[in-house]
Q: What sequence folds into this?
């Protein structure tokens, strides 16, 4: 029987991934006249790479890339402050699940972005903890993020389940030895989810699955 749920954030609890892509694409074009194609970004995202790889491949200096990343972060935060990133029904399902399960968020988002996303939301109120990029040495697809979540709960792998929407996140859970449920997201639909334990159409389906 499952006792613990570890949620990814972006694409599972809030619809933010498209805006990270848009801000990265915008900056690469603005700073370096480089086109970040969607399929290229999906491949990079799936394996846990960085959009800046296409700039590095052109020999662009790191100091220039750092400046571009600063601007990307500004664009991204502007998007998440002004766009509708809510996913319908998420708060209600978290409220229901919290009555039976202990829950945490394990994300590769920067803490500053995460806090901005959730500043006016109540989703984290149902969580026992949140882990962001700064909270571990090796991000997804390495297993460390989800193993860190297990450690906080003092739980064994069979007691927990991960909820993800990306291949990178699934790989992290799989390498950690934790069952993983993939929630359908149009943005990551091209990813390989063959190693998922379960697949659901929407987060509301999780209650019945468990």
A:
């Amino acid at each position: 029987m499952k006792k613990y749920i570890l949620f990814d954030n972006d694409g599972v609890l809030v619809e933010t991934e498209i805006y990270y892509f848009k801000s990265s694409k915008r900056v690469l074009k603005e700073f370096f006249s480089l086109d970040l194609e969607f399929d290229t970004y999906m491949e990079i995202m799936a394996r846990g790479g960085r959009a800046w790889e296409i700039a590095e491949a052109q020999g662009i200096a790191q100091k220039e890339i750092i400046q571009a990343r600063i601007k990307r972060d500004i664009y991204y935060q502007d998007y998440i402050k002004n766009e509708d990133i809510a996913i319908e029904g998420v708060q209600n399902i978290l409220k229901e699940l919290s009555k039976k399960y202990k829950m945490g968020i394990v994300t590769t988002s920067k803490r500053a972005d995460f806090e901005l996303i959730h500043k006016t939301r109540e989703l984290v109120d149902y969580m026992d903890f949140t882990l962001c990029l700064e909270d571990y040495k090796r991000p997804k697809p390495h297993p460390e993020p989800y193993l860190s979540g297990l450690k906080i709960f003092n739980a064994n792998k069979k007691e927990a389940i991960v909820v993800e929407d990306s291949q990178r996140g699934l790989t992290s859970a799989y390498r950690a030895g934790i069952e993983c449920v993939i929630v359908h997201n149009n943005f990551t639909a091209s990813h390989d989810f063959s190693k998922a334990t379960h697949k659901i159409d929407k987060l509301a389906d999780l209650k019945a699955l468990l």
Notes: The chain has nine helices and six strands. The CA atoms of residues 48 and 185 lie 18 Å apart.
